[in-house]
Amino acid sequence: MFLGMKKEAAAELWSLLELMPGRSGAVLGLSKAFFELEDYHSSIIVVLRNFERLLERPSERMPDDLWLLAYPQGFWPSITASAKKYGMDPYFVAAIIREESQFRPEALSPAGARGVMQVMPSTSEWIARNAGMAAFERAKLFEADTNIAIGTWYLSHLMKKFNGNLTLVSAAYNAGPEPVLAWAAKTDVKADPAVFVESIPFAETRGYVKKVMRNYAEYRRIY
What we know:
This protein is mostly helical. It has helices at residues 6-19, 24-36, 40-56, 64-70, 76-86, 90-100, 121-131, 144-161, 166-175, 177-184, 193-199, 203-222. Helix 9 packs across helix 10 (177-184). The radius of gyration is 18 Å and the shape is globular.
């Protein structure tokens, strides 16, 4: 870590996990070390693999560190800069990133979505043109800073389209705006967001919205 060999240090940390006794303090220490390396993905994965049940059924005795690592402020300078530029709540951006990639810059979905906010290459080029991002290249989607700027601009675009309704924005980020407009026309989202979410016909989107909104609530509570 001191030499700046982050990938090599991360590999050593993973090997330590196999030798480490299953004590919660040791596991949390390992997650913190990944966080210091700015390997936020490995940091959160270690926590979720070892404490997922505890996070689902929290108690007052849970250490604050566990919450901070489970809902990390990864890439925070980039998130806050883009959120301020495009008028977004940084904790909502973080909630999207946590669900989309768990803070993994090199994430690549089977459909071809890339980076921490899982942006499709074709969509990213449209966003770059509309946002005035000069010299944009698809390869830059694997750079966290660029991906967050692209994804946050798109969230702000959806916010305008759906009048700031975060439930609809979450659904649209996953399923696209057109299906969400059709669903919203059948259910009064403002009257009862929970009823709308349960009425979403796509199981993937239904689960996605619940997770993003829970992430957002936890981010707001913790920070």
